[in-house]
Amino acid sequence: MEKVRTVIWDCDNVMWFHKKEEPQVTAKALGITETEEFSAEFYKMFESFMEYFKNKRVNMKKTLKLIEREMPILGIYGIQPEQFMIVHDGLKIKVNDFNYDTLTVMKYLESKNIKSIVKSDWWRKVQEEIMGYYGVIDYIEELHCCDNSYLKSNPLSREGIVKPDREEQYLIIGDSLSSDIAFAEHAGIKSVWLNRQHKENKTMYKPNFEVASLLEVMEII
C-alpha cells in the first residue's frame, strides 16, 4: 500500500457511532411522546433520503419535503420539517459515541505523510461541528459533504475528490457497502470495510480489505 497518499473517511458509524436511543432523545427534545411509530418514521426517513438522492444532487428544499412525507407524525404535533432538522442536528454530539481510534489512526497517517479527507453523506455544518468538537478537524485537509452535491452511491460523487489517473493513491474507509464501498468501485480506488459486527456481505460490492476495528487500518497502510 505504499502508493496510497490520501485516505478518504466516512463519518457516521466510522468516526462516531449512533446511539440506539437517538430517536427517543430526538422525540423528547421535540416534545413528542416517545413511541415506536416515531422511531419507525425516523429511520424510514433516513433510508428514503439515501434512496431519493441516489441519482440526483442533494438539496435542502427537497430534503425538507422528504421529511414532511416520510414523517407524518411531525404534522400531528404541528412540527415543521425545518424544526425537526434543527433539533436533530443540534443533538448530534449527544446522540453519538465518538470513536477515539479515529484520532489514533489519523495521527499515524499524518506521520506517514498520508493526508486525510472526508466524504460524508450528511450536511457539512453538522459534521464539521462534531469533528471540531473532538479535534478531528485538525487532521482533515478536505471536507466534502452532501450540500448541493452527490451522495457516495452516485458515480459523479468522485468528481473534485479523486484526481484522474491517480486512483492508486486513494483509499476509502467506510462502514456501508452500498455507499462507501460502492464509491470505491465507481471511483476505481481501494477500500476498507469497517465491519464491527462481522456482518455477511450479501451485496455486489467487494471491499479490498475488511476490518473489525479502525486500528487494524494501520496494519494495512
Overview of the structural elements:
With 221 residues, this protein is of the alpha/beta class. The protein has helices at residues 22-30, 36-52, 60-70, 72-76, 81-90, 101-111, 124-134, 177-187, 217-220; strands at 6-9, 16-18, 96-98, 115-119, 140-144, 170-174, 190-194, 209-211. The strands form 2 sheets. Strands 5-4-1-6-7-8 form a 6-stranded parallel β-sheet, with helices on both faces. A two-stranded antiparallel ribbon has the order 2-3. The protein is globular and about 55 Å long. The protein starts with 5 loop residues before the first strand and ends with a helix.
Topology:
Blueprint: E1 6-9, E2 16-18, H1 22-30, H2 36-52, H3 60-70, H4 72-76, H5 81-90, E3 96-98, H6 101-111, E4 115-119, H7 124-134, E5 140-144, E6 170-174, H8 177-187, E7 190-194, E8 209-211, H9 217-220
Parallel strand pairs: 1-4, 1-6, 4-5, 6-7, 7-8
Antiparallel strand pairs: 2-3
